């Protein structure tokens, strides 16, 4: 069976796909199935793999130190347009939801490390911790099929949501409010 797709439709679909998500380098891609599950207190969730990485200021960030908070681990890179586009929403939610026990963490997978991340984070004035992955997050949470990808950790330190692709405040805030109020 031959299916004919008009070129214009195909082109729009391809451009839309590029705007939605960026693919990391080939070495970090595999066939993984993204999990997106609703908040449900009766379900058992996987414990979030712990890691310690240094923030831009050189202070260590250890995930397990933040148990009792809702943590959004956002996997991103400076070269990824959708990643850059979601950061302002994350900064806004960090300001608004900090007192409710919500914490965002940006985990960059830039191969250039701090040389690429530091100037970008300073220019954007990112108001939440940013770290550069040394393989620790990749080993625990990866391989990443696409970026951005966000892992939402509940107050018990469990991965409750995995959100592949760009997240907007409209999509993410209701989930965070639900988890913060549990």
UniProtKB/TrEMBL annotation:
Name under which the protein is recorded: TlpA family protein disulfide reductase
Q: Which residues form the Thioredoxin domain?
A: 42-181
Among InterPro entries, the record links this protein to:
AhpC/TSA, Thioredoxin-like_sf, Thioredoxin_CS, Thioredoxin_domain, Thioredoxin_ResA/DsbE_sf
Question: Which keywords does the record carry?
Answer: Redox-active center, Signal
Is Signal one of the keywords?
yes
Which is one Pfam family of this protein?
Answer: AhpC-TSA
Give the signal sequence positions.
1-21
């Amino acid at each position: 069976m031959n299916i004919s797709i008009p070129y214009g439709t195909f082109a729009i679909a391809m451009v839309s796909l590029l705007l939605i998500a960026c693919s990391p380098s080939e070495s970090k891609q595999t066939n993984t199935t993204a999990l997106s599950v609703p908040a449900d207190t009766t379900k058992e969730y996987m414990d979030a793999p712990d890691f310690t990485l240094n923030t831009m200021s050189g202070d260590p960030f250890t995930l397990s130190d933040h148990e009792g908070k809702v943590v959004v681990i956002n996997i991103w890179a400076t070269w990824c347009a959708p990643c850059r586009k979601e950061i302002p929403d994350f900064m806004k939610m960090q300001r608004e939801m900090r007192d409710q026990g919500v914490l965002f963490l940006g985990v960059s997978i830039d191969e250039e490390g701090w040389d690429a991340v530091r100037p970008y984070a300073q220019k954007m004035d990112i108001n939440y911790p940013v770290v550069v992955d040394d393989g620790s997050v990749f080993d625990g949470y990866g391989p990443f099929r696409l970026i951005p990808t966000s892992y939402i950790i509940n107050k018990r330190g469990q991965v409750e949501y995995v959100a592949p692709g760009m997240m907007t405040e409209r999509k993410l805030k209701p989930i965070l409010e639900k988890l913060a109020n549990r």
